[in-house]
Amino acid sequence: MASSRRALALLALPLLAASPAQQTPAPSPTPYEAVDPFIGTGGEGHTFPGAVAPFGMVQLSPDTDAECQIRECYAHAAGYRYDDPTIAGFSHTHFSGAGHSDLGDFLVMPVSGEAVPLEPGDARVPGSGYRSRFSHDGEVARPGYYAVTLRDAGVRAEMTAGTRVGVHRYTFARGKAAHLVLDLRRSLYNYPGKTLWSSLRLRPDGTVTGSRRTRGWAPDRQLFFAMRFSAPLKDHAFVSTEKDVAYKGFQGPGRGSDAVAERQGRALVGRFDFGRLEGPLEVRVAISSVDEAGAMTNLDAEPGGFDAVAARTRVAWEQALGRLDVAAPAPMRRTVYTALYHSLLAPSVAGDADGRFRGPDNAVHRAAGFTFRSTFSLWDTFRAEHPLLTLVQPAATTSDIVRSLLASRRASPDGILPVWQFQGRETWTMIGYHAVPVIADAYLKGIGGFDADEALAAMVASATYAPYGGLGDYMKRGYVPIDREPEAASKTVEYAYDDWMIARMAEKLGRRDVAATFDKRAAYWRNSFDPKTGFVRARKSDGAFRTPFDPTAINYGSDYTEGNAWQYSWFVPQDQAALFRAMGGDGKAIAKLDAMFDYDNSQLDYSHAEDIAGLIGQYIHGNEPSHHVAYLYNHAGAPWRTQARLKQIVDTQYKPAPDGLSGNDDLGQMSAWLVFTALGFYPVTPGSLEYVIGRPFVERATLALPGGKRFTVVADGLSDANPYVGRVTLNGEPLARSYLRHDEITAGGELRFTMRSRPNRAWGKAAAARPYSISRR
Predict the structure, then answer these.
(1) CA angle in degrees (0–180, nearest 5) for 695-696-700
(2) β-pair type (681-682, 690-693)
(3) What is the DSSP secondary structure assignment for residue 706, as one 8-state letter?
(4) pTM of the model
(5) Please, what are the domains in the chain?
(6) DSSP string, 491-547
(7) Which of 98, 111, 424, 702 has the fewest CB atoms within 10 Å, counting from its CB?
(8) pLDDT digit string (tens) for 125-171?
(9) For the chain, first and last CA: distance in Å?
C-alpha cells in the first residue's frame, strides 16, 4: 500500500536508465521510511495519518467527517477514516487511537474560484460545500508530513508540524483565485451547544488570532491560535452563523484594542482571500491553551517556513525511531516501526514555549524546568506504553511526564492525580488511579528529576480520596460494593494493583508504615475472587456476590469495565501465583487460560459494546484488560503455551494495512504491546522491574541505550515453521528463567533465542524460573 503511493510520487521525477547489470538491490527502508501512518486509520484503530512531531502539541491532520454527532463520532474519533470519500478540512488537534472523540480544533480548508462556501456540505453531493473528494492514490503520509490532492478544490494540500506549530502548504491551480475557510464551529464530538464561545481577530501585521471555548468530553476547555500567511490578504470576512442571537449564556472577553477586525460568538467562520497566486500559499499556525499571546509566542519559537519545519521534524523523528534498529521481513518491520511511531505521539506537549500551561483548575500555571505534558490515557497506557518510553526515550521524557502529573495534582481542585486528562483538563474517564504505577515504575527504575516524597504523598492522596470511584467503601470493606458503585469488580482488582505500587515506592523511600498499609490493601483482590466459580465477581454491601452471574456478559456500567469476568479474573499482576493457587493450581489455571482463548462465541452478540474488538475466544486483544493474559502461562510454568498464543495474537490482530489494528490504539498502548512482544518480552507487572519472556517476532533488534550501550535481541532460526523457543541465552550464558530484569537490559548485552518447531516444555517450568509474584518472593 505505502510502496504504491511512493511509486506514484516517483512518476513526477526524471527517470534514469539503468541496465540490469547496473541495478543493485534496494536497501531496506530506514526506520523513518518504514513507518506507515495509515496503519490503524481504518477498522477500529482510530489513528490519524496527519503531521505531528514526537509528542507534539499540534496534530495537523485531515478530518473526513465534520458533521460528527455524539454516538457517530466513535468511528471518527481521530477525525479521519480511511474508507471515507471526502475531506472536510485540516484541523490542528487529534487523539491517536482514543476510544472517545473530541478535539478537531480550528478547521482550515482551501477553496479555489470565485464562490466561497462557508458550510462543509453533504459528502454525497459534490460541490455542495467546501469539503472535497480525494483519492488515496495521491495521498502521502510519513512521520511529520502529509499530502493529498483535493479534487474538487483543485488544490495540492501538504501538512507538516513542529512541536507547537503546524504548517500548511497549498498549491492552487494557476489562474484560480485562492481562499481559505477557517471554521471555528466544527469539531469532533460536535453535539449542539458544544461551542460556548469563540473569537476571531485580525491584527495590524496580518496575523490572525482567535479562540474556542468548548463543552465536550472535557468540560469548559479553552484553546487559542495564532495564524500567519506567506501571502498578503486581499480581503477577508468574519461571519457568525449563530441563529439564537438572544443567547444569555457565557460571553467572551471584550474587543481587543489592537484588532483591525474582530468578531465573537458561538458559531464563527472566517474567510480569507488571496487572489491569484504565483506560488504555493503557506499558513503557519500555533496553538496554546493559555491565551492568544501564548499562541504567538509559540509561533515565534519555531521559525521558518514549510521546508524548514519539515526538516527539523524529520530529524526529530529519525532520532526517536532510530533508538530501535530492527531486522525483519518487510511487513513485520513496517508494522513494528509504525507501532513505535504511534507509541511516541502521547503524552503530548501541552505547555507553551514560555512554560505556561492551563491546569485542571482552569487556571494558568508555569512549569519550572520541565515541559508540561498532557493527554494521559492512563487506564490504557500504564500497562506497556509508559514502560516502553522508559526504554526507548531519554529519561528526561518520563521525568517530564511525572513532573506533569504532579503539577496537575497540585492544581487539582480535588487534590488527586490525573485520571484521563488532555490539554490539562480532567475528563474522569475510566477507573483506577493509574498515574500511580507510571510514577512508581519510573522511580523504581532510577528515573529522577522530581520530588519523590511529594510523589508518594500524591499517590497516597489519590488512593485515599473517598469520593472517587467507591474508594470510601473500598477502604472500609476491602472491596467496592456493586450496589453502591458501578464496575465494582474491576475497580476492586485495579485499586489493589495500584496499592501494591504505592507500597513498593514507600518501601524504597523507607516509609514502612505506608508500605504496610498498602501491602495489606494489595491483597484486597481476594475479596472479589469467588472460589466456587473461579472468577473475579462483584459483591454487594452485605458481602454476597451479585446474582445472576454470567461470566460472558458485557454491559457498560455493570460489574466490569469494558469487559467481563473472563478478562478481569486474570488481573492480579502483583500476585499471579496466589491467584493460580486460588484457582486450584497451575494445571487448572492453564486449563482456564486455554478455555478463555478457545471459547466458542458463536452464540454471543457484543455489537452493543464499542470497545470489544479483536476477539480470540473470550480473549479481547482490542481492549486493554486482556493485554497481559497471554503471558500468564509463564507464571504457571508453561512458557511454551505463551509462545503459541502470542503467535496466534500477532498473526490475527496486526498487519501493515489501514485496518491493521484490531482495536483502538489508545494513545499507543496497542502499539507498545506489539513493540515489546516483537522484541520477545513484556512488562506484565510494571513496578516489578521484570519483563516476562515470550518469543521474538523479529530476526534481530537493537535498543540504543544511554552511555552508548546497546541491548540486542537475536532470534536464530526464526520462521513460521519454528514458532517455539528452544533455548535462551543472556550474554552467552544459558538463561533458565522465563523473565528478564530491567537492569539486565539497561546494562547492555545480548538476549539470544534459538527457535525450533516443537515446544521446549522443560524451559521455565521450575518455580524459581517463573516471573514475579508477591507470594513467590
Answers:
(1) 150
(2) antiparallel
(3) G
(4) 0.94
(5) 2-12+32-241+250-317 (2.70.98.10), 342-351+611-777 (3.30.2080.10)
(6) HHHHHHHHHHHHHHHHHHTT-HHHHHHHHHHHTGGGGGEETTTTEE--B-TTSPBPS
(7) 702
(8) 888 999 999 999 999 999 999 999 999 999 999 999 999 999 999 99
(9) 49
